[in-house]
Amino acid sequence: MSILETIRQPKQRKLLMSAGLSWMFDAMDVGMLSFIIADLSLKWQLSPQQTGLFTSINSIGMVFGAAIAGYMADKYGRKSVLLWTLLIFSLATGLSAAATGFAVLCILRFIAGFGLGGELPVASTLVSESVQSKDRGRAVVLLESFWAAGWIAAALIAYFVIPKYGWQAAFIIGGLPALYALYLRRAIEDPPRYTKQTAEKGNRAASFRQRFKSVWAKPHRRATIMLWVLWFTVVFSYYGMFLWLPSVMMLKGFSLVKSFEYVLIMTLAQLPGYFTAAYFIEKFGRKFVLVLYLVLTAVSAAWFGLATTEGALIAAGICLSFFNLGAWGGMYAYTPELYPTSVRSTGVGLAASFGRVGGILAPYMVGMLVARHYEIGYIFGIFFVTILIGAAAVLWLGTETKGKELED
């Protein structure tokens, strides 16, 4: 049986594939960035601080994109916002190939990050609202699994394209998903749950301030605190570790091409990480998957930071990819389930937006620490502690949502 056949209705499978492909393109863009910066830092002689700034600027755009797109999706619908954010990030990525200076490239990456940050929470909300409760968690984790496919595509592009044709070619390829928006325009529609809520309660009239207050109102405050801590710690650790992964491999003595090769091997472990999380999330629940996978991510991070041999580095990197991306899938499945339809996309967007602050700080922090000659083991020790804080927040503040109907 195909993994997609576990989602029973053909219409839902089509939605999952359509949203999943847009998710894959997002991942390809972020994934290529980590490889591009390794090549660009050599050709443009970027300092570690500039490298950290470049990897952070994408996340700065994502902070604004997630918050604004989440609100707009509650106000104007999931479909239209998904299409516009896809177009924004694709066009900005394609134009990045023409950048002739560091400042211009950073501006374009900010715009691409805005579109990227907006699309991800809207897509997860759209799928979560469109699938029945017994399949909902699995469907969103499977949506997240397309992220691994995008990273694998990025690693392949990096391995075969960047060394031969340069970083500009990677950006051109990253701009092609703009054409996919034409297909999405007819392939997806807003969930009946959202359209019914909008028609009955005039949901579009609520302002951003009203929705923000609702997310932090007493019924949702505990969930919001937990989600903001979870998102911050997961995004902080992910972008700090994975955007620097090729560069860290080079710091450990491997060539550019060899580093790309090893990161490709590590990236392949993301898919089984997602698929096992998709199975466990409906069998044992959201909290079980998140806590278990986060704790094992922390252990893998410490192992990777301390590894010295080639075999240990690859093995630790594989475990890091497996458990970290499985946790991402659980987080995206869990977050929309904690808010009612009227503010669901806003709640998801705000949590993602706060999390992206971690995505700004971590890559820049790594750049500063590398410039000051801190050991890689020390840097990954910071991620070890951070991830455990996220696991503790879920364990103590989280509520289980497995099998529950979404709140209207």
Automatic annotation (TrEMBL):
<dbReference type="InterPro" id="IPR011701">
    <property type="entry name" value="MFS"/>
</dbReference>
<dbReference type="GO" id="GO:0046943">
    <property type="term" value="F:carboxylic acid transmembrane transporter activity"/>
</dbReference>
<feature type="transmembrane region" description="Helical">
    <location>
        <begin position="347"/>
        <end position="370"/>
    </location>
</feature>
<feature type="transmembrane region" description="Helical">
    <location>
        <begin position="167"/>
        <end position="184"/>
    </location>
</feature>
<dbReference type="GO" id="GO:0005886">
    <property type="term" value="C:plasma membrane"/>
</dbReference>
<feature type="transmembrane region" description="Helical">
    <location>
        <begin position="110"/>
        <end position="127"/>
    </location>
</feature>
<dbReference type="InterPro" id="IPR020846">
    <property type="entry name" value="MFS_dom"/>
</dbReference>
<feature type="transmembrane region" description="Helical">
    <location>
        <begin position="312"/>
        <end position="335"/>
    </location>
</feature>
<feature type="transmembrane region" description="Helical">
    <location>
        <begin position="376"/>
        <end position="397"/>
    </location>
</feature>
<dbReference type="InterPro" id="IPR036259">
    <property type="entry name" value="MFS_trans_sf"/>
</dbReference>
<keyword id="KW-0813">Transport</keyword>
<dbReference type="Pfam" id="PF07690">
    <property type="entry name" value="MFS_1"/>
</dbReference>
<dbReference type="InterPro" id="IPR005829">
    <property type="entry name" value="Sugar_transporter_CS"/>
</dbReference>
<feature type="domain" description="Major facilitator superfamily (MFS) profile">
    <location>
        <begin position="15"/>
        <end position="402"/>
    </location>
</feature>
<feature type="transmembrane region" description="Helical">
    <location>
        <begin position="53"/>
        <end position="74"/>
    </location>
</feature>
<protein>
    <submittedName>
        <fullName>MFS transporter</fullName>
    </submittedName>
</protein>
<feature type="transmembrane region" description="Helical">
    <location>
        <begin position="21"/>
        <end position="41"/>
    </location>
</feature>
<keyword id="KW-0472">Membrane</keyword>
<keyword id="KW-1133">Transmembrane helix</keyword>
<keyword id="KW-0812">Transmembrane</keyword>
<feature type="transmembrane region" description="Helical">
    <location>
        <begin position="139"/>
        <end position="161"/>
    </location>
</feature>
<feature type="transmembrane region" description="Helical">
    <location>
        <begin position="223"/>
        <end position="242"/>
    </location>
</feature>
<feature type="transmembrane region" description="Helical">
    <location>
        <begin position="81"/>
        <end position="104"/>
    </location>
</feature>
<feature type="transmembrane region" description="Helical">
    <location>
        <begin position="262"/>
        <end position="281"/>
    </location>
</feature>
<feature type="transmembrane region" description="Helical">
    <location>
        <begin position="288"/>
        <end position="306"/>
    </location>
</feature>
